[in-house]
Amino acid sequence: MLKHFLQFKDLSRDELLYLFERARVIKSRFKRYQPYHPLVDRTLAMIFEKSSTRTRLSFEAGMHQLGGTAIYLNTRDTQLGRGEPVEDAGEVISRMVDIVMIRTYEQEIIKRFAAHSRVPVINGLTNEYHPCQILADIFTFIEHRGSIKGKTVAWVGDSNNMCNTWLQAAEVLDFNVHVSTPPGYEVEPERAGLYGTDNFESFADPMDACRGADLVTTDVWTSMGWEAENDERMKDFADWQVDAEMMQVAKSDAIFMHCLPAHRGEEVTAEVIDGPQSVVWDEAENRLHVQKALMEYLLLGKIES
Ligand code: CP
Ligand code: NVA
Asked: Core-most of 50, 74, 162, 274, by most CB within 10 Å?
């Protein structure tokens, strides 16, 4: 059956646990220079309507390492930027390649594309969600600290695509998220695609959100698409900077994550992101490994390790 990964909850808990284990195996073989080419002759189309370093590189390199090919498309150079309906693009592109990754604006765009696609579609970031990043983040947590079940993640900052996806992941994998956003930037459970509010708690003070947390994480104050609000956001978010004091009230073995790109001195201090509790480079690298497991799963189903 055709399977897409448009939001985190598109995969069940069992499927996610399978992917984390599979990512571990794929990563370990890769580190031992053992070639693994299950996707020979398969082609990935990567459609970017927003900028990217990590997502493009990890998907392109990942597809290459699995024996396949990746093609980069952007709005500027394709008919998508000249008003070709996204439904038509879905029909055509999915007749020419085996799998598609899209980074775009509204989630509705990727849903419309997927509804007209004959092949799996992966969300490489939308305004609402960033599911591949959270796959990598949770895989990184597991590598460093073991199962995330029952653990507490502190989210400090904007209730953006990363925050929404953490909240969805908490429901599927049964952990808790303590969220602290400035007034006016609160979580909207419906937009986040949540079933309820059991797995998250909101805190007015970011210090309270971080208290006792196993993982402290944040993201830029101004996401792609919101640049016009930048000056206002710099003022509104000034007290939501993750600093040493916040890390101090988290568990003593708490780790820090950021999906990157980061702005030192804004959402996080250099002391924290470059400090001993930060795992941001492992987190970035793990995009490669989890997405290889994801593409393999969407194209070939479960593989016996
Ligand atoms: N974290 C992330 O998705 O980075 P890029 O915007 O560089 O792809
Ligand atoms: N929230 C950020 C993430 C970038 C990877 C954005 O959407 O711009």
From this structure: 162
